[in-house]
Amino acid sequence: MSSWYGLKTVIFSQDKDDEIYHAIVKAIVEHQLPPGSKLPEESLAAVFGVSRTGIRKVLQRLGAVQLITLTPKRGAQVATPGVDEARNVLATRCMLECANLPAVVERCEAAHITALKTIMDEEQQAHEARDGATAIRLSALFHVQLQAISGNDVLTQMVSQLTLRSSLVIAAYGAPWQQGCRCHDHQELLDLLKGGRSGALAERMKRHFDEILANLRFERSGETAPDFARLFGIAAKGESV
Fold this sequence. Notes:
This protein is mainly alpha-helical. It has helices at 2-29, 41-48, 52-64, 83-107, 110-128, 132-148, 153-173, 183-194, 198-214, 228-232, and strands spanning 68-71, 75-78. It folds into two domains: 2-80 and 221-232, Winged helix-like DNA-binding domain superfamily/Winged helix DNA-binding domain (Arc Repressor Mutant, subunit A, Orthogonal Bundle); 83-214, Four Helix Bundle (Hemerythrin (Met), subunit A). Helix content is 68%, strand content 3%. Strand 1 (68-71) and strand 2 (75-78) form a beta hairpin. Helix 2 (41-48) crosses helix 3, helix 5 packs antiparallel against helix 8 (183-194) and helix 6 runs antiparallel to helix 7. The longest helix has 28 residues, at 2-29. It starts with a helix and ends in a 9-residue tail after the last helix.
């Protein structure tokens, strides 16, 4: 019995860690935690009702995927990509996504088109509702699902990770109205995919990334201290340890 209880505790802890990890990732991707935002262990521990040790583990995971920076004495902050890094993230995405498009076209079926159109329609609705957070998330999802059609799980995972870092780039350097990609761009990409035109699709994808880069304003924002309880919709629970 004690062994089973210990296993249950470990599983619960892992599930809780994942829940916190994905909640923070979602907040970063949706620009609710902008670059430079401080992530103090004590505040996060209180909000999520866990120990500071548990929060520290989550922050280390976020640091490993370069979404946050961990600095001695200054603690954790949402990462602020430098100008060169921002350009390189977008250039790498462009390179990978364009190179994979022939495989995407080759494997594409009607069900894939339907799924992408659903994402695109929801993205359009989010734009119309001025729901920037949802629009940003759906924009990234469109790109990841497009690449997933190829069946190349390694590349799709790489693109998925890069979309997270791209979100930081847009948050740091995008214009205030910039909420993910423009829907008509995705419509044009979808039309070319339906037509099986891999060459034209790659050209349009490259132009898509060129346009994103051209709309960036390379100015940094300052550090902020978000209201975590409001952001994550969780009442503070006791004291951290």
